[in-house]
Amino acid sequence: MLPKRLVLDSWISTGTFAEFVGTILDMGAARTSAYVCCANVHMLVEAHQHPDFRRLLDEASLVVPDGSPVAAAVGWFHGLRQSRVAGMDLLPALLAEAARREQSVYFYGTTDEVLTAMVARARHEHPGLRIAGAYSPPFRELTPEEDAAETAAINAADPDLLFVALGCPRQERWMAEHRGRIRSCMLGVGQAFPVYAGLEPRLPLWARKLWLEWAYRLWLEPRRLWRRYLHTNTRFVYLISRRALAYRVGRPHIPA
Question: Molecular function (GO) terms listed (predicted)?
């Protein structure tokens, strides 16, 4: 398993992009009931404020440095050259390598429209890819009977990798609740679904390098996201600054 380093209160996995891809596919091939979280600023602030969510992240097999500030913080506090490993890049890379290794995948979450477009693109780009299934659950809490039926259906399809897009923190909680019940490596990749489907454009590379994806998402969905970004971004900057100051004065364990 890839080593982890502490950023604020959360343990972030470290390694190269290729190491993340290989580790995830190996867990899938082993039919390990594991889950992978793609950590951005929002997720780390959620973990800082909610101990139950922090425990959920701690128990993940991998916590991918999805956000550029998260990857940068690994370097700031641990002296490592950690590149960003974005979920939007992981998804297509894992599909390509799964096709090469003859491993199977399953898409769970979002809408039927997105899933149909995703499956069409995946089959076009990787004709040999084994797509075990795709399902859009209701946008509400499932009954125990519905959840048991969906879990049984996924296990019957027997995928190596189960891509989950239910939104943060719902998808992370869902994966944690189904660890030990679903025989796959589960990955919470959220926003990567509509981007891969071609239904939502991705920010150009130059803007991503300037850490502007949050601004782009805010421009796309201002009414839904403005409160989140106002709170989480400013809170993250405050917490990181406070932790950095503690390191500079020789007190790295100050509570943030």
Answer: hexosyltransferase activity
Is 55 buried (19+), middle (13-18) or exposed (0-12) by CB count in 10 A? exposed
- Please classify residue 169 by burial: count the beta carbons closer than 10 Å to its beta carbon, then call 0-12 exposed, 13-18 middle and 19+ buried: buried
Q: Give CA–CA dist 176/171, Å, rounded.
A: 9
In what order do the strands lie in the sheet containing 62-65? 62-65, 34-39, 185-188, 161-165, 104-109, 130-135
Task: Tell me which residue of 133, 139, 141 sits closest to 161, measured CA to CA.
Answer: 133
Report the distance separating Cα 235 and Cα 3, nearest Å.
27
Instruction: Give the C-alpha separation, 104 to 123, whole Å.
Output: 12
Give the CA angle between residues 7, 68, 85 to the nearest 5°. 90
Predicted TM-score (pTM) of this structure: 0.88
Report how far apart the first and last C-alpha atoms of the chain are (Å, whole number).
28
Distances (CA, A) of 83 to 1, 77, 180, 228, 245: 18, 14, 31, 25, 24
pLDDT (tens, 9 = 90+) of the chain, 256 residues, equals 899 999 998 999 999 999 999 999 999 999 889 999 999 988 999 999 999 999 999 999 999 999 888 999 999 889 888 999 999 999 999 999 999 999 999 999 999 999 999 999 999 999 999 999 999 999 889 999 999 999 999 999 999 999 999 998 999 999 999 999 999 999 999 889 999 999 987 766 655 665 556 565 655 666 665 566 556 777 877 888 887 776 666 655 544 4
Largest Cα–Cα distance in the chain? 57
